[in-house]
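Lecture 7 notes. Example A: sequence first, then its C-alpha cells.
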Amino acid sequence: MLSERSPFHSHQILCFCLLTILLAADRTLAIRFPDRLSENPKDLSNQPFKTAIFALGSFWRSESVFGCLDGVVRTTVGYAGGSKTNPEYRSLGDHAESVQIEYDPSLINFRQLLEVFWSSHDSRQVFGQGPDVGNQYRSIIFTNGTEESRLALFSKEREQTRSKSSIVTTQIQLLATFYPAEPEHQKFELKRNLFLLQLIGNLPEEELEKSSLATRLNGYAAELCPPKIQNRIDGKIDDIIRKGWPILRDV
C-alpha cells in the first residue's frame, strides 16, 4: 500500500537535486559513487554478544524495527517455530516469519527488546498482523532458557493487564532451530533505497547481510528509527552531500 510522501522521502529528493546541481556545475565537485566498497568493521569476533528471536508479523518490517536500536549489532530474517526442515519463503510449513537479533547486553538487554516487541505489533490479533493474515505472521517470543522464559512470561502478563477487553495471543516457545531466509529478504527496506546503498559503497550481498551499518540503515530506510537516531543519520547524510564524498561508514 502506498503512503503519503514523508519528510524522509522529501529529504531524499533534496539530496538527489543537490547531486544533480553539483554534477552540472563542476565535475570536480561531483559526489563520486564507487562501484563497490567493502565494509571494514571492527573485529567483533570476541565480543560477548547475545541473540534474541521474535516473530511479530512480516519479517521485512520486523527487521527494520530492531535494526535502529542502540546496542543491536546485526539482524537476520528467517523462519522459526515450526517442524518443517529447511523451510523456504514459498514453502515454510508451520513456521513463523521471524527476526534474529544479535545484541550487546552492555548496551541493551532482553527486557528492553521485549518492550520494543510489544510496542511494535498487535499481540491481540490472531494469526496475522494488519493486512497480513496467515499462520506465518503469528506473534511469538522465542527463549533459550529459564531466565528468558521468566522475563517473557512476566512481560506477557503485564501486556494482558493493559488489554482487558481481548486476549494477548502471543506464544512463548523454547527455540528449536532458526532458519535464515533467502538473501533477497535480508535488509529488504534498505535494498529498496538505491541512494543509501550507494552511500555505503554498494556492498555485495554477503557483506550487506552481516553489516552493522546496513542493519542500522535498514531501520532508517523504513523510517522506524527513534527520532534522535533518525535525525543523527540525516545529519550524516547532509554532511556527505556537503563534502562531496559519499562513503558512509558509521551512524
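Example B, a different protein, same format:
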Amino acid sequence: MPPPPPPITVPDTTTDIVFIDTLHVSTTIGPDCWGKTKPQLLHISVYLHLKSGFLRKSGESDDVLDSVHYGYLTKSISSLIDKQGGFEGIDGLVKGVAEEAFQLGGEVVEAVRVIVEAPKLVLLASNFKVDITVPSVGSKKEDARSKAVTVEGLMIPVIIGVNPPEREAKQRVVTDLVFYEKPATSLSHVEYQSIVDKLAKVCSFGWRWKPAEHWIDWRRNGTNSRRKSNLRHT
C-alpha cells in the first residue's frame, strides 16, 4: 500500500484569524464544463492568519477597527473582481485575492488561505474546489505555498456487482478526488478537467467488486491523488 497523501500546509491554527466565509461572485476564469469562456458563479472563502495576539486589542475594545476589518476586505475583493472583469484561471483569481488581503492587513498577516469553489466547472461532479495557502513575503515559510484541488461528488456509472443481475447493469458510484500539488507545479483547471474526463472514461469500461481494498493512484505532472476504493478494472 502506498504512503498516505501529503497534508496541506496550513498555518498554525493557534494564530489569530479573520475570515470571509463563502463570498458569492461571478467572473471569468476560463472555459467552463461546456468549454465556453464566460462569467460563472464562484464561491470564495478567505482566511487571514495574523500574528498571534494581534486580535487581543479588538477583543478588549470590542471595536472592529482595532482588527483587520472583514467588511473592508469583502469590499476590496468585490471591487477587484468588478474592475478586473476576468482572470487567468482560478490560480490567477487566488493570486489577486491574496494580494488584496496582504495589502489590507499589512505586516500582521503571516499567510492568506483562499478557497475557491466552482460548481459548474466539471460536468460529472457537483463541485470543483481549489484550496491555496500563500505565506507572506519574507516569512520563514515563504516557499511553503500549498495547493489542493478537490473534485466533489464525481458521478461515474460502473459495474460493481458479483451476482449476474449486478453484472448486467451499471450502477451509479459517487466519489471525491483530492489532488495535492507539489510546490514547484501548478496545473490549470482545464488540465484537471481533462484528467477527470479520462478517469471517468476508463472507469465506464467496466469494473468489478474486489473484497480486499486497494488504492487507485492517479499521478500526472506533479499531482498526486489517492483514493481508497473497492473497485477493480476488468
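Note on Example B: Residues 89-105 form the longest helix (17 residues). Helices lie at 56-61, 70-84, 89-105, 189-204.
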